[in-house]
Amino acid sequence: MFSLLIILALLIRVILMPISVHSDLFFINIFPALMKEKNVYDIYYYFSKNLPNAPYLYYPPLTYFTFGAFQHVYSYFSSTFSNWMMVLYNLEISGFQGQAVDFIKAALNPHLFKDLFLAKLPYLVIDILAVFSFIKFVKNRVQARTLTLLWLFNPVHIYSTYLMGQYDIIPSLFVLLGFLIFKNNLYLGIFTLGIAAAYKNYALLFILIIILVYTKTWVFRLKLALVSSIPYLISLLPTLIHNPFWAVYSFLPKIYLNRSIPLVGWPLYSQYLKYVVLTFILLAIFTLASSIKIKDKYRLVIGLSLLAVLLVYAFYPKISFHYLVWEMPLVLLWFKKFKICAIVLTVQAFSLASYKLLANHLQMGLFAPLNPDYFSALPTFNSQINQIFPYTIISKTGFFIFFFINVYLASKIMLDLFFKEQTN
Q: In what helix (H) or strand (E) does residue 12 lie, and over which residues does it extend?
């Protein structure tokens, strides 16, 4: 039965890969195409010289190197992929705006399905590595299979990775590996988490928690911090050579520093308030990590890391649906039981989707490769529901459910860590 489910998970992915797309997948791939087509290895320097006013660099350098390397491989299987990416790139920098369907129609590709499949191929490789990771590191065979199935059939993962094409699953794999490894090898584990942070810097939360829990001297803390920073520093070398400022800039979340519509009034103040609350919460978690003494440090690190992510979900004002992939390794390692993990992941997914995934390009419009005009014109599920019942009630209910489920889970983790653990 387990083998059949693995085959089913693989089939779902293979079917979805060529027939669905979000514009994020194009955005992720068009800039790495410069590495193959123009031998650009410092993407930040290239833009500072050629497009100094374009806020396009949303991802750290390791993302560019990874997808650039894969695109060299794609050239052996597709004669159109690189040219198509360059056409999309030229559309992007010319100011062309639209959703995936608009890019598909503006940059016609006779091998669209094959090239979309190739663009998502790194994610399939990551999932295969995740399966092998569970089998190798989780000694209990039943538990290894349970965690594998939860990973493969997580609806957030399938939607974000294979429908949209977002790459959060790559750092998530390295988070998983980091937590599985550091229990027996602290240096290798934190180095692996450093790779995750070099893709998306949310993993720095976990690195800092591990350092605070496992070390008591500043020398040891500095040593672990240096080990964790090696992957990022290596990926930044070309940028550091050209311009250290751009190396610092690459570390910042540019997408949040460039807002086309400035906020004023309460929307602005409420965001600031959430940032202040979240900052105090994270500082409190770091304080606990450095001061609380619990025998099972490994469980403490997983608990505090998941606690941090859940509270980020609850209070971060700019959360996107695919951010739910971040917590996946931690939810599986903390709760472990199939039913609990499934309930947590499902409730979070549907409650967040109820107010975040409301536009056509996030619903049936994702299948635009099959028929651009047809799928982009389909009404959204929320608009159909709104004809018979006010959808705002559903979306507001979903908002509060998402907030409270995360706060509840965070509270439960705190109770488990600081009451149950100390009574054992």
A: helix 2-16
Is residue 423 left, alpha or beta, with left meaning phi > 0 and alpha meaning psi from -120 to 50?
A: alpha
With residue 343 as reference, give the H or E element that holds it. Answer: helix 338-356
Dihedrals phi, psi of 248, to nearest 5 degrees: -70, -45
Is residue 423 assigned to a domain? Answer: no
Per-residue model confidence (pLDDT) at position 262: 55
**What gap in Å lies between CA 75 and CA 59, rounded to an integer?**
23
Please report the sign of the dihedral spanned by the C-alpha atoms of residue 75, residue 79, residue 82, residue 85: negative
| Nearest C-alpha neighbor of 106 from the set 122, 89, 118 | 89
Please, which residues have CB within 8 angstroms of residue 386's CB and are 6 or more apart in sequence? none
Whether residue 60 contacts residue 200, with contact meaning beta carbons closer than 8 Å, is answered with yes
| Model pLDDT, residue 180 | 94
- How many independent structural domains does the chain possess? 1
CA dist., res. 62 & res. 70, Å (int): 12
Tell me the two tokens of residue 375.
């799928």
**Spatial separation of the C-alpha atoms in residues 211 and 289, rounded to whole Å:** 9
- Give, in order, the Cα–Cα distances in Å from 372 to each of 80, 352, 357: 20, 27, 19
Structural domain includes residue 59 = yes
Question: Please, what are the averages of pLDDT over each run of 10 residues along the chain (424 residues)?
Answer: 91 96 93 86 78 67 91 91 92 87 92 96 95 89 91 95 95 96 93 95 94 90 94 86 67 51 56 82 90 87 95 90 95 90 94 94 95 93 93 95 95 84 50
Q: Using a CB cutoff of 8 Å and minimum separation of 24, what contacts does 48-54 make?
A: 48/243, 48/246, 51/93, 54/93
- Residue 259 is predicted with a pLDDT of 47
Domain assignment present for residue 347? The answer is no
Q: Which domain holds residue 107?
A: 18-119
Task: Give domain status of residue 114, yes or no.
Answer: yes
Two structure tokens written together for 374? 């047809």
Contact yes or no for 34/43 (Cβ under 8 A): yes
Amino acid at 175: V
- Tell me, what's the pLDDT at 52? 66
